[in-house]
Amino acid sequence: MSNLDVQPAPTPIRPWRITPRRVVPQIALAAAGSIIAMVVALLTPLAGFDGWLLIFVPIALVGGYLLARGKGAVATTDAMVANTVVVVAGIAFYPIISLLWTVVSQGLDALLNLNFVSSDMRISGPDDELNMGGAAHALIGTLMMVVIATVITLPLGVLTAVYVTEVRGRMRTLVRFIIQSMSGVPSIVAGLFIYSTVVMGMNRFSGLAGGLALAILMLPTVARTAEEVLKLVPDDLRSASYALGAPQWRTTLFVVLPTVRSGIVTSGILGVARIAGETAPLLLTASYFTATTFSPTEGPVASLPVFTFNLLQSGTEYSFARAWACSLLLLLALFVLFTVARGLSGRDKR
Amino acid sequence: METALGHGTESQVPEKRTVIARASRGDRIFRRIVAAGALSSLVLLGMIAVFLIVRSGEIFGRFGFDFIFSSDWTAGAEADGSDSTFGVWAMLVGTVLVSLIAVIVALPLAVGAALFIEFYLPERLRSSVRMLVDIAAAVPSVVYGLWAVSIFSGAASSWGELLNRFAGWFPLFGVENEQYDRSPFVAGLVLAIMITPIITSVSREVFSRTPPDLVNASYALGGSRWGAIRSVVLPYGSSGVVGGTMLGLGRALGETIAVYLVLNLVFKPNFRILESQGGNVASLIATKFGEASQYEIKALLAAGFVLFILTMTVNMVATYIVQKSSPLES
Q: What CA dihedral angle connects A86, A106, B197 and A306, to 10 degrees?
């Protein structure tokens, strides 16, 4: 015993710690690789980012192999896979970053004119100066159709989710299967369906038709998210409610659904995010109109995506600036929706 | 104990009762309402099929299978369509070709990105990057189209040219005209970029649900990170990856606006992916819809029906596979 007491406690090795000895060669490799690739890209015809990438990737992979060599086969494979995963993820993220950056930098140009959100294109053409006209008509139209779609879809989606998780009816497997398949209905087919029923029936394009087409695309998202949310409700709550003598409808309406109130809102938000930018179905149902309209039944209504699409086709400098600004508005809306959804998602789990 | 129990067994052990829980009237009404709501999706899906086929029945009646297997799309001036011919074969070929390119490119990228987010990225950055991917998955196709037209398609067509120079002997990469923009290759890459976030988002979600005990057990056995991924995470998440891929494939098959903007619509089946001609059913509908006569609209509805059947088949098969292979999700 005394023998043991005398010995000093060994220093812990902590192999998981990130030490300079492990990180510095990696960083040096990445830096050297990118500099070499940059030089090659500047001096040879392999110009631009893709040329850089073409040089950098082999350097990074071979260098990573050389660094990991000598630590055994398992460690070498692990390091090679890690390098590959990082490179692949970089390639996957690059277009996304490029897209977001381009939209923000190009879109600010027109969006910084306040009239872009306050006036419509009633008296302005797509290639007028940016201080004339705007996207107010499209904003209002999109809002109108999204509200119509949400009012229809949210109850149906929640009913579907309740059927699958609470009532557990005989056809729940079939219902889940149909909802899952419905998420694959091409958006233009939803548009064609509403065109062949509502538009042909009313004999005109309308915001109502647009909203209905969007509802078809929104339903699967809402139903599936709501189902996921309802599954999180602990069975104890249901049992407690039944034990107090409540029938199923009271349990569902006054215990289960209130528990996941914010989750239901989240499902609606994700649904809205899914449809807010849909272009193809609206082309066939709501079409496009240059002035602001508030009536959902009296003829064509503009929307942000269709407005963007029309601007793109006129193809002039100012119309492109406007198209970028519309895209920026759509992206901002998505950003707000997802931030709210993320804020809400933590709430129900208590 | 035994004797005490055994003493009066016959009288003490109660008979098994059958419990009949009769739902109250409120519950019966409630269930009926909920079932009606849930079945609305079924009715809707049926109605889509029925209305499209009824409104376009005339076209199928006149052209039969030629509507699917011929590639001529001529809209005549006659109101009864006697001088019109319609066939979507070239567009179907284009749809499948472009979607296949998209999935082949997007799948490895998405799996790599999903693994990166869940297992390689520092924990602090994880939730922001997740949100970035979710937003990218929801970015409208018209925005992707705008970006593709003004930024991406130039680069993509130069890659097409490179590919032709070094692999042009391969029939798939040969060209007749030295023009590389607006080709199925470019459109396929744009779609790949569009569906990568969708596949990433779904795969990442499944990967993150791998039971941590299994991953830790793999580490405890001396496995490396790659070992854990290969033998625990990927097998566990494979059905999710398949599901995400099918969702992405469905989106690619039905994509309209982005394809419309970056692909030349030519009514000739084209398998040379670098050639500047192609098309897909959805963009055909969007292109022709604006100036279509009543008769051509019927043909477009018929094309929509064909597209609907194609995507539904793909989707149902995929859903079936996923629901079969994931016993964890009842």
A: -170
pLDDT of residue A16: 66
Cβ-defined contact of A279 to B140 (cutoff 8 Å): yes
Record the tokens describing residue A207, joined without a space: 């915001």
Q: Rounded distance, CA B193 to CA A100, Å?
A: 13
CB-based contact, A160 to chain B, within 8 Å: yes
> Phi and psi for A315 in degrees, rounded to 5?
65, 15
Helix (H, G, I), strand (E, B) or coil at B14: coil
What does the pLDDT read at residue B329?
45
pLDDT at B17 over 90: no
- Of B8-22, B114-128, B169-183, B192-206, give the lowest mean pLDDT range: B8-22
Instruction: Tell which phi-psi region holds residue A287, choosing left (phi > 0), alpha (psi between -120 and 50) or beta.
Output: left
Rounded CA separation B89/B67 (Å): 8
DSSP B81-128: -TT-B---HHHHHHHHHHHHHHHHHHHHHHHHHHHIIIIIS-HHHHHH
Measured N-to-C along each axis, helices B294-325 and A172-182 cross at an angle, to the nearest 10 degrees, of: 130
Using an 8 Å CB-CB cutoff, list chain B residues near A339. 131
Give the model confidence (pLDDT) of B162-179 as tens digits.
888 888 888 888 888 778
Decide which of B327 and A146 is more confident: A146
- Write the CA distances from B209 to A235, B203, B236, integer angstroms: 21, 10, 9
Of A311, A304, A263, nearest in space to A282 by CA:
A304
Q: Name the residue with higher pLDDT: B66 or A50.
A: B66
Cβ–Cβ < 8 Å for A161, A223: yes
* Residues across chain A: 350
Q: What confidence tens digit (pLDDT) does each residue in B218-276 have?
A: 989 988 889 999 999 998 888 889 888 988 998 999 999 999 999 988 898 888 888 88
Reported as type and span, the H/E element at residue A183 is: none
- Residue ranges of chain A whose pLDDT lies below 70: 1-6, 15-17, 44-48, 346-350
Please choose, from the candidates B114, B116, B148, the residue with its C-alpha nearest in 3D space to the C-alpha of residue B134. B114
Residues A244-297: tens digit of each pLDDT: 999 999 999 999 999 999 999 999 999 999 999 999 999 999 999 988 888 888
Q: Please name the residue ranges forming H helices in chain A.
A: 2-6, 20-43, 48-68, 73-111, 115-118, 136-162, 172-182, 187-194, 200-202, 207-231, 235-243, 248-251, 257-259, 261-275, 280-285, 304-314, 317-345
3-class SS of residue B41: helix
CA atoms of B214 and A248, how far apart (whole Å) = 38
Q: Does A231 touch chain B (CB under 8 A)?
A: no
Cβ neighbours of B150 (radius 10 Å): 15
Rounded to an integer, what distance in angstroms lies between the CA atom of residue A78 and that of residue B45? 48
Contact call for B38 and A160, based on CB within 8 A:
yes
**B53 close to B60: Cβ distance less than 8 angstroms:** yes
Using the Cβ of A308 and the Cβ atoms of chain B, whether some distance falls under 8 Å is answered with yes
In the block, residue with structure tokens 């027109």: A110
- Which residues in chain A are contacts of B37 at CB distance < 8 A? 155-156, 158-160, 162-163
Task: Please give the pLDDT value at position B11.
Answer: 63
Q: Are residues A85 and B115, on separate chains, in Cβ contact within 8 Å?
A: yes
A122/A127 Cα distance (integer angstroms):
13
Q: What is the ipTM of this complex?
A: 0.88
The Cα–Cα gap between B197 and A93 comes to 9
Count Cβ–Cβ pairs < 8 Å, chain A vs chain B: 273
Q: Report the residue from B143, B247, B257 with minimal CB separation from A103.
A: B143
Provide, for chain B, the percentages of residues in helix, strand and coil under a 3-state DSSP scheme, each rounded to the nearest 5.
Answer: 75, 0, 25
